[in-house]
Specification:
The chain is mainly beta. The chain has one domain. Helices cover 15% and strands 38% of the residues. Strands 1, 2, 3, 4, 5, 6, 7, 8, 9, 10, 11, 12, 13 and 14 form a 14-stranded antiparallel sheet that branches. The longest helix has 15 residues. The protein is globular.
Length: 297
């Protein structure tokens, strides 16, 4: 698929102009961080040229790691009970929801989106300037984008000697358009502003990443919400991270950007999820997921 680039290339390591401007904004308005002291912000970083569906294959090759793709019963979280804390009773979450997180590779995925009318042109503009070119964060703009289905691959990067999992990635691609919906690594972390474990998703971007840190909340029906919201740097929420040419790291907490994913058991062998994204308290996009257990062969 050929993508027309709407922004000039500045050469390595700067990348494309729009990416370079965004990175300077993070550096000017954010703060310098030492990842040895703030490991909860650590994660894979993209190259200036873009991301794409093969990003984690390239990451494995560069770091001498082996790859295991869609291994039976592999999941976003190896042990759901590790989310338990005084603020979250992991044992009372519905077993089907837990099964999805621990055995994500056993599920097929359908997804569709609902844009707020006023924000749809903004979504189209972002797709034109960033998402299509980067092949990352290509949220559906219409039902046609996902009408032919979505691939769902759990990619694990392993230490060649010990076999220990170094990264667990979930790569989703829209079959009809070929665009990468999401390519992100999943792990658990603890942040200074929350007394318990959170789910961390790192989406590699040129010379940096977008990091979503979500605290878990259980509902009375056994459903689970993961929520990225807080008040200040160190809380759960949305972060941009940039690495400059000297290796120095800058991070920006984006308080205005919040999201919630509610995951619940539906009909037999089906888990559903509703994903709400807000900016300045206004919902601009809702994504809906149907996660069906694969038939045994």
């Amino acid at each position: 698929m050929k993508v027309i680039c709407p922004t000039p290339w500045l050469g390595a390591p700067h990348g494309y102009l729009t990416d370079w401007v965004t990175q300077r904004w993070v550096q000017l308005t954010g703060r310098y961080v030492d990842l040895s002291q703030s490991q909860w912000l650590e994660g894979p970083i993209g190259k200036p040229g873009g991301i794409g569906k093969n990003y984690f294959d390239e990451l494995a090759s560069e770091n001498n790691l082996s790859i295991r793709c869609n291994s039976p019963h592999s999941g976003l979280i190896q042990d759901f009970s590790e989310l338990a804390s005084p603020l979250f009773d992991a044992k009372s979450v519905h077993p089907e929801v837990v099964d999805f997180y621990e055995h994500t590779s056993n599920y097929d995925l359908d997804a569709w989106g609902e844009w707020c009318t006023w924000f749809r042109p903004f979504g189209t503009l972002l797709a034109f300037i960033f998402s299509r070119r980067l092949q990352q964060l290509n949220v559906p703009l219409s039902s046609l984008d996902t009408s032919r289905g979505i691939t769902s691959d759990i990619v694990q990067l392993l230490d060649k000697n010990s076999g220990a999992v170094q990264y667990t990635a979930w790569v989703r691609q829209m079959i009809g358009t070929g665009n990468v919906l999401y390519a992100g690594s999943y792990s658990l972390c603890q942040v200074p502003g929350y007394d318990g474990s959170c789910i961390k998703v790192v989406f590699p971007l040129p010379n940096g990443s977008a990091i979503v840190i979500m605290k878990p909340e259980r509902h009375s029906d056994g459903s689970l919400s993961v929520v990225s919201s807080g008040k200040e740097f160190g809380d759960p929420g949305f972060y941009f991270l940039v690495k400059n040419s000297s290796g120095r790291i800058s991070a920006r907490y984006v308080r205005a950007m919040r999201e919630e994913i509610r995951v619940y058991a539906a009909e037999d062998s089906v888990v559903r999820a509703d994903h709400t994204l807000k900016i300045w308290g206004v919902t601009f996009l809702k994504l809906h997921y149907k996660l069906r257990k694969k038939q045994a062969t």
